[in-house]
Amino acid sequence: MIALLPGDGIGPEVIAEAVRVLDAAGCALDFQQAAVGGAAYRESGHPLPETTLDLARRADAILFGAVGDPACDTLERRLRPEQAILGLRRELALFANLRPAKLFAELADASALRPEVAAEIDLVIVRELNGDVYFGEKGMRTTPAGRRQGYDVMAYDEDEVARIARVGFETAMARGRTLCSVDKANVLETSQLWRDVVTEIASEYPQVALSHMYVDNAAMQLVRNPGQFDVIVTGNLFGDILSDQASMCAGSIGMLPSASLDSAGKGLYEPIHGSAPDIAGQGKANPLATILSAAMMLRYSLGRAEEADRIEAAVAAALAGGARTPDLGGTLSTSQMGDAVIEALA
Ligand code: NAI
Ligand code: MG
Description:
Layout: E1 2-7, H1 11-24, E2 31-33, H2 38-44, H3 50-58, E3 61-66, H4 83-91, E4 96-102, H5 115-118, E5 122-128, E6 138-142, E7 148-152, H6 158-173, E8 178-183, H7 189-201, E9 209-214, H8 215-224, E10 231-234, H9 236-249, E11 257-261, E12 267-271, H10 288-300, H11 305-320, H12 334-345
Parallel strand pairs: 1-2, 1-3, 3-12, 5-10, 8-9, 8-10
Antiparallel strand pairs: 4-5, 4-11, 6-7, 11-12
Helix pairs in contact: 1-10, 1-12, 6-7, 8-9, 10-11, 11-12
Magnesium ion binds near residues 240 and 244.
């Protein structure tokens, strides 16, 4: 069973197209839908109701749209729509975030990079999602000199590093068998442990060529020569920044899928974009990021790589045939883009 959580804004619009494409591809999946985010708050007073969380727990995989609703911005933090995605990641122990960045050749002009450099991008960033400065001890205190001081502790233990390293190596095994681990080991103790543990785990994967890179250099290399990367594994903070950077190198935000996985391979699949309130309800949203997220779901959680390949090829074929939503400089509506992918499946 697949839990469908459309959410807010353009979430339901893009999820509808992903479901149409999965059906048209003959996947015959059993979908069960539940409210999440602002939509759930309005129905039940909570952005992640127990019934929704329970459905997600029972599901083989979760296909998620987006959450976020300007009408909820004045609510206290725990009731805001965005808390739903954080709650799902925490409750389902989704510790590994996989973000592919690949430029479809037809969209070279949409990249922030020169076309010949952009054409080289085909990489996956594996980002740790449950640790690092976002989850360490944090607070506000007063220094002895009487100044206000904010602090966020960066911490990883060796098991946390080992499990994300294994996801990095497994991802590399399924791709080009090279893995670049990104850290800041020249100044951070956390990164020194990270580097040591990743190097230890490497002995379990003799087929994978491991390299290490400092995060500042990695940021530079992503723009200078992105073709050198196949799989990057990194911590939560560095991965947050590098994956957004890589996504802009790969074109529109409406094109990029993601997966968040637990240790058993169960996952939540979602576009990297948000609920886009500025275009919601107008049929302008690009559904390809969600359609590609559905393909990742087939590949990573359901073991159906052939159907995933077919859907990804249909997206490429639709783009090659000139299908463009407004974010890509075209005029197709959300459902017309869905139609173009479905036609290309045949
Ligand atoms: P956003 O990603 O929703 O939108 C940024 C810009 O990109 C907007 O101009 C939007 O129209 C455009 N855009 C996004 N997706 C598009 C698509 N599929 N097709 C065409 N254009 C697209 O980010 P923003 O505006 O910062 O956040 C809006 C709301 O979404 C906020 O409430 C935010 O908290 C939430 N959000 C939720 C996420 C999630 O559910 N995982 C992730 C990011 C933001
Ligand atoms: Mg981010």
